[in-house]
Every structure is written in C-alpha cells, then in structure tokens.
C-alpha cells in the first residue's frame, strides 16, 4: 500500500471476532425524527456521544447527524457523521471529493469501490489538514447514498474518523475499523437519487441506453443524439452521441478529428483545447471490447463568456464507431452539475447496448 509521510492506510482488520467484540460497541443512531437518517456505527469503547442533534453546518453544506469523541487521557479521537440532500444522481465518491476540496482536506490516500448493484462509485479516503493553529489532523472518510423518499433526490452521507497526526500510528486501525463498519438502518428500495429512463435506438430491437429522468433526449440527425440537463430554461450539461461507419473512419483518432471539427470551424468564437487522445482499459461495458479512447479539455467562448469542461470517449460498437462527448460546468461548490454530468455519461456508457440490425 502507498503511504505519504508514513501514514498507514489499512484495508483489512487484524482483530479476531472476540477482540472486536471486546474493543468496540455498536452505536445505533435514532435521534433524528426521520427514519431515513438513522444509522448504526461500530465505535471503540472509549468513544461516547458528544452531539446528536441535527445541526446545519452552512459553510460546508452539511447537516450533522452525530458526533462522538473520547474523554480520557489516551490519544484523542473523534467520529463525525453528516449528510446532504442533493437533487441529482451522482457518484458518492465525486460528492465526497467536492466536499473534501471545500473543507480544505488534502487527500493522501484513497481507494474507489464500484458498487456491484450499479449505483455508482464509492470512496474510502485518507486526508491531512493543517489548521490555523498549526495542528495537523489526519482523517479517514467513507460514504453512503440512498434515495430520499420524502423530498426525492438522494441523501449523501459521510462518516469521518479523525485524530492528531502525531497519534495516527496508534489509532490507524481503530479509525479504519470505524469507517468501514457503519450503514443505514432503513434503506429505501431505490439505490439511486433519480429513477432511470430508457432511451431506445431502434423500433425493431432493444438497442439503447439509460439516463437519469431529469435529462432530456432529442435526435439531431440519424447519426447524432443530444442528451441535455436543462431545468427552468438553464442548461448545465450536454452529452452528444455521434455514430460513424467503420468503413468510412478507421481509427479512434479519425473519429475524434471528425467529431471536433465543428469547434474549429467556429473559431475564433469558440475554442476547444484538449489533451492527447489516449487509450484506456474498458471498465464501463463488456460490449465495447477491451479498450476505448478518451481525452479531456476545455471549451472557451469569448463571445458568450463561457468556459466549459469537455470530455469525450470513442469506442467501437459492432460495425460502428461511437463518439460520446460531454460539455458542462467545471467542478465548483455552488452546484453539483459537474458531478451529475459525469455520472450521466457513465450511466450511458455502462448501460449502452446495440443489437445487430
């Protein structure tokens, strides 16, 4: 395992079952009126409740649903649980990374966990933060997600276990054991923040893909679809899907060059800058084969005063090439458009299916 400044990042417990029962207790949080906020967490015996009331922490956009701390002469440790309701479907990992950046946490180690049920990528993250006092604090975070049955959208939860950096070597195992042993007590039947809708590509078979229900689809031609996230007249993301015959274009680079030509045709009003198209392992969909190509960049429109994030994927489907392009907002702390856009494109890629005509 990789560590920075020798901060260990354990991913397995060395405790026997008997040792775990002796050293930890199972806390069941039921203080909130809403059952959807109830959770359980396994804590070291010396951690006790410190704050159980719901408390809005406006500066980081979270609501406290439990804080636990030690009150003895041994090294201090604290555990904190919080949540945020967000309207859009996104990866819990992306939601967490947004929060960590907002809170000024430096990521020193992490692991990403793809949920086997298909409801997104989760994260287990170790961070370091230097406070204004000069004290260094090491924290470990994990996340959960559930549908909000009362207001719709999703409840995104985090749990954090932290201590002074000087004490971390003594507490690393307790911190790990805590952040991986917690869960919601009353999960809904939906593991997404939004229902998914199916987009059909054929009247004759099941070719198509899925998108969150807040997105809209419109065909621009027989070979191009536009998927938009437009609400109250404001657009926060666009995904273009373009299809090309492999008899006309022979490589991913050919597809990429043809697809971005429209940006260069509009210069100097619109400028696209990207990194080099690169081949990566296909982790989205077995239907695409072993690899696909991707690159990221930025679109700038001086006339419209827009700077937009750009990403594309190029992959082979049967006898066709598909170019999937995302244009939308950069990551920021005022909205989750970047995270929602990224998640929608991932859902499209992972659910994409094309039958032979």
Rounded mean pLDDT score: 93
Distance between the termini: 48 Å
Structural class call reads alpha+beta
Helical content band: 10-25%
Instruction: Using the coordinates above, name the CATH class of the largest domain.
Output: Alpha Beta
How would a crystallographer describe the biggest sheet? 8 strands, antiparallel
Summarize the structure.
The protein has 357 residues and is an alpha+beta fold. The protein has six helices and 21 strands.
Can you walk through the features of this model?
The structure is a single chain. The protein has helices spanning 17-23, 92-102, 168-179, 252-259, 261-265, 337-351; strands at residues 24-29, 39-44, 47-51, 55-57, 62-70, 78-86, 106-114, 121-130, 136-147, 154-164, 182-184, 196-200, 208-212, 216-221, 224-231, 234-245, 270-274, 278-281, 291-301, 306-317, 320-328. By secondary structure, the protein is α+β, with helices and mostly antiparallel strands. The protein folds into 2 domains: 17-184, Mog1/PsbP, alpha/beta/alpha sandwich (Protein Transport Mog1p, Chain A), CATH 3.40.1000.10; 196-351, Mog1/PsbP, alpha/beta/alpha sandwich (Protein Transport Mog1p, Chain A), CATH 3.40.1000. Strands 3, 4, 5, 6, 7, 8, 9 and 10 form an 8-stranded antiparallel sheet that branches.
Quick tags:
357 residues; alpha+beta; Protein Transport Mog1p, Chain A; 2 domains; eight-stranded antiparallel β-sheet; 6 helices; elongated
Structural topology:
Blueprint: H1 17-23, E1 24-29, E2 39-44, E3 47-51, E4 55-57, E5 62-70, E6 78-86, H2 92-102, E7 106-114, E8 121-130, E9 136-147, E10 154-164, H3 168-179, E11 182-184, E12 196-200, E13 208-212, E14 216-221, E15 224-231, E16 234-245, H4 252-259, H5 261-265, E17 270-274, E18 278-281, E19 291-301, E20 306-317, E21 320-328, H6 337-351
Antiparallel strand pairs: 1-2, 2-11, 3-5, 4-5, 5-6, 6-10, 7-8, 8-9, 9-10, 12-13, 14-15, 15-16, 16-21, 17-19, 18-19, 19-20, 20-21
């Amino acid at each position: 395992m990789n560590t920075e400044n020798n901060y260990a990042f354990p991913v397995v417990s060395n405790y026997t079952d008997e040792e775990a029962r002796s050293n930890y207790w199972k806390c069941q949080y039921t203080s909130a009126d809403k059952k959807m906020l109830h959770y359980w967490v396994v804590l070291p015996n010396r951690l006790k409740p410190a704050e159980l009331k719901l408390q809005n922490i406006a500066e980081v956009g979270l609501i406290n649903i439990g804080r636990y701390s030690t009150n003895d002469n041994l090294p201090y440790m604290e555990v904190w649980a919080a949540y945020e309701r967000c309207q859009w479907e996104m990866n819990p990992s992306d939601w967490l990374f947004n929060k960590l950046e907002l809170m000024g946490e430096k990521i020193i180690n992490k692991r990403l966990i793809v949920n086997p049920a298909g409801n997104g990528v989760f994260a287990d993250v170790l961070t370091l933060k230097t406070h204004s006092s000069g004290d260094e604090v090491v924290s470990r975070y994990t996340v959960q997600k559930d549908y909000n049955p009362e207001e719709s959208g999703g409840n995104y939860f985090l749990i954090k276990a932290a201590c002074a950096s000087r004490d971390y070597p003594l507490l690393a195992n307790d911190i790990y054991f805590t952040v991986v042993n917690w869960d919601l007590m009353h999960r809904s039947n939906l593991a997404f923040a939004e229902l998914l809708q199916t987009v059909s590509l054929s009247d004759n078979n099941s070719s198509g893909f899925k998108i969150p229900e807040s997105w809209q689809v419109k065909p621009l031609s027989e070979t191009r679809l536009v998927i938009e996230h437009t609400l109250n007249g404001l657009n926060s993301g666009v995904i273009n899907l373009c299809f090309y015959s492999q008899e006309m274009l022979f490589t991913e680079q050919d597809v990429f060059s043809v697809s971005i030509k429209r940006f260069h045709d509009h210069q100097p009003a619109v400028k696209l800058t990207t990194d080099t198209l690169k081949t990566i392992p296909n982790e989205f969909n077995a239907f695409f084969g072993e690899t696909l190509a991707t690159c990221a960049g930025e679109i700038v429109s001086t006339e419209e005063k827009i700077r937009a994030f750009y990403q594309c994927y190029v992959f082979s489907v049967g006898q066709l090439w598909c170019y999937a392009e995302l244009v939308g907002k950069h990551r920021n702390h005022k909205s989750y458009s970047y995270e929602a856009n990224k998640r929608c494109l991932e859902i499209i890629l992972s659910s994409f299916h094309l039958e032979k005509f």
